[in-house]
Specification:
The structure holds two protein chains of two kinds. Chain A is mostly helical. Chain A contains 15 helices and four strands. Helices cover about 75% and strands about 5% of the residues of chain B. Classes of the chains: A mainly alpha, B mainly alpha.
């Protein structure tokens, strides 16, 4: 569809200009290279483990920010991750589906669950949407606990097979690190291209000004459903990736608080910057580990960081550079 | 036998429903007045349960007085939190909501550190049973219903007849018009927030003897409060009253006769149906 953007359309401020694309490619390549050298810097299994979690979590935060671009906050993101995880794990263990396909199937199923839900609830705005996704997430957790004959209930599924590719099993941390890195890179590139495509630019228009977007001929409901389904499907794939890494899934693997953690990553990193979700995952994932020395205080500090970032850096850590530049020029950001 | 079961379910349902009403009224009040979704609401319920527990079980203060102490303490804490944490997020629903999530994490973990994760039983306030022909009702349940009814009635009087209550309703209906009338909304917000979380604290205190107290008790009533406000309409106090009782009774009957799992999914179905056909709730007002 044609882009009828008026000059004063605020959407433009958040969407990267085409000339920036090369710069983004360049930065992406630099970050990818830096990430790829990580296993050479440290051989500590523990650091590698945290790094893998950072990479997978960044895909959750990224997909959540795809949904957030349309102005909706999903509180059942972890619920869709658990759908993907359970589907892939059960498919591999009972039906013999190779986990490589299981990850994709898990994502597709999560997307298929999100589709009718999204269609029903996306006409709801803001707060109602959040409340329903919260309720739905709780129901998914209940389902995982109650459907004991399938999901093993609260005990969870033990011994989920690893991902295999051409006969090679990704069981050690270094190989899984690269697998997770490739997955995160794919999710990043996909999200970037999506948000840059006309369909993705519609996301931002819908978020900034729903009425204006509608009057320029954007099907706002369809746009929001597409974002919700795509974001939830990526969450499903991420959940499957996590499950095949941890080799275990239970109703406690992805709870309401996991969704909150994803939101925290997105907010702390920065909702509008492409790199925001990655930065957020990079900061938030190791935080409990770093703060472990403080005893039980880690979660309290975690909550405090969330509130402080919201108050003083509402556009997240990714906006610090922008602010500094604006500050040097003497203007206000 | 079936008659007893039905009566029993009804009483249990009303007990549950009254708790939901108390939690949901506060929740919906904050939304109506401040346009804010308080995800920490359940944590104030938990704090109320603990304060009541300590006052009643440790210091042997009469239960009613303990409840009052919890309401005042938690209400004051709520006013403080509104000033310090939520004021900067005025007018930004999404960020205020996320900040409330952060607050919930903080409160819950402070409680975990201070009091540990183990649930504690609360001694009964009243014992014995009421026999009405073949029907048997434990007094402990009837007590909760009576106390909750008194609290709701007091709340109704405050919100309807006092100048503070009138100011709150004015701000909820139209903040700008209220400002024009000389009501300082900024002054109203802390009181509204304090009153709202005090109601949650009262609900927590009342339910302590029935379910016990632990730092995790807040999440379930908050989930139910969400469902109640969806059923009743976000921002509608009468909707919270109706929705809470409806939810409690439906839940109690469904879990007695159909099992807890079916009951939970029935609720989801009910919520979805209401959202499809009446997204503004049973008693709410359709937003333009």
């Amino acid at each position: 569809m044609s882009q009828t953007q008026t000059p004063d359309m605020p959407a433009a401020s958040h969407a990267p200009a085409p000339t920036e694309q090369r710069a983004i490619w360049l930065r992406f390549a630099v970050v990818a290279c830096l990430v790829a050298t990580f296993p050479f810097i440290t051989s500590s299994q523990y650091y590698l483990h945290v790094a893998i979690l950072v990479l997978i979590n960044s895909t959750f935060a990224m997909s959540l920010s795809v949904i957030a671009r349309t102005g909706q906050l999903s509180l059942c993101h972890a619920g869709f991750a658990s759908v993907g995880g359970y589907i892939s794990a059960l498919g591999a263990m009972h039906l013999g589906i190779p986990p490589v396909f299981g990850v994709v199937i898990g994502g597709v199923v999560a997307g298929l669950v999100a589709l009718p839900l999204g269609w029903i609830i996306l006409k709801l705005r803001g707060v109602y949407f959040v409340l329903v996704t919260f309720t739905f997430g709780q129901m998914l957790t209940l389902l995982a606990i109650d459907a004991q004959s399938i999901t093993e209930g609260a005990n969870g599924i033990v011994g989920v097979p690893p991902i295999r590719l051409f006969g090679y099993a990704f069981t050690d941390r270094i190989s899984y690190f690269y697998l997770a890195g490739a997955f995160a890179a794919l999710v990043f590139l996909f999200s970037w291209r999506l948000l840059n495509a006309p369909a993705g630019r519609n996301f931002t228009c819908v978020e900034e000004n729903l009425q204006l977007a509608e009057s320029t001929g954007i099907d706002t409901r369809k746009t929001q459903v597409v974002a919700f389904v795509v974001g939830s499907a990526i969450a499903g794939m991420g959940g499957a990736m996590m499950t095949h890494y941890i080799r275990y899934i239970s109703p406690d693997s992805f709870t309401f608080w996991t969704s909150v953690a994803f939101i925290t990553m997105m907010v702390v990193g920065g909702r509008w910057a492409l790199a925001g979700p990655f930065i957020g995952a990079l900061i938030i994932t190791p935080l409990p580990e770093i703060l472990r020395a403080t005893g039980g205080l880690q979660h309290i500090i975690y909550g405090a960081i969330l509130i402080l970032v919201l108050q003083f850096l509402p556009d997240g850590v990714a906006s610090i550079g922008q602010r500094l530049r604006a500050f040097r020029k003497g203007g206000r950001p | 036998m079936t008659g007893t079961l039905i009566a029993q379910s009804l009483v249990n349902g009303v007990v549950l429903g009254m708790t939901y009403v108390l939690v949901a009224i506060g929740f919906t009040l904050i939304f109506g007045i401040m346009r804010m979704v308080n995800f920490a609401h359940g944590e104030f319920y938990m704090l109320g349960a603990f304060v009541t527990f300590f006052a009643f079980a440790h210091y042997q203060i009469p239960f009613i007085v303990s409840l009052g102490i919890a309401a005042v303490l938690i209400g004051a804490l709520g006013m403080l939190i509104e000033r310090v944490i939520f004021r900067p997020f005025r007018g930004n629903e999404l960020n205020g909501m996320i900040a409330a999530l952060g607050l919930a994490i903080i409160i819950q973990n402070v409680a975990l550190i201070a009091w540990g994760a183990d649930p504690r039983p609360v001694p009964s306030v009243v014992t014995g049973i009421l026999k009405l022909g073949p029907l048997i009702f434990p007094w402990s349940r009837l007590y909760v219903i009576a106390a909750a009814a008194v609290i709701v009635a007091l709340f109704y009087i405050v919100i309807t007849y006092t100048s503070l209550g009138r100011a709150m309703r004015a701000v909820a209906q139209d903040t700008e018009i209220a400002l024009v009338q000389g009501i300082r909304a900024e002054r109203i917000y802390p009181f509204a927030f304090g009153l709202s979380v005090a109601l949650a604290a009262l609900a927590g205190g009342l339910m302590g003897p029935v379910f016990g107290v632990s730092p995790a008790v807040g999440l379930a009533p908050m989930l139910k409060a969400f469902i109640v406000v969806i059923i009743g309409g976000l921002g509608s106090v009468s909707g919270a009253l109706l929705g809470g009782l409806l939810l409690g009774i439906v839940e109690s009957f469904a879990s007695t006769f159909l099992g807890a799992t079916v009951s939970d999914f029935l609720l989801l179905g009910l919520v979805m149906a209401i959202l499809i056909f009446r997204p503004w709730g049973l008693m709410g007002v359709k937003e333009a």
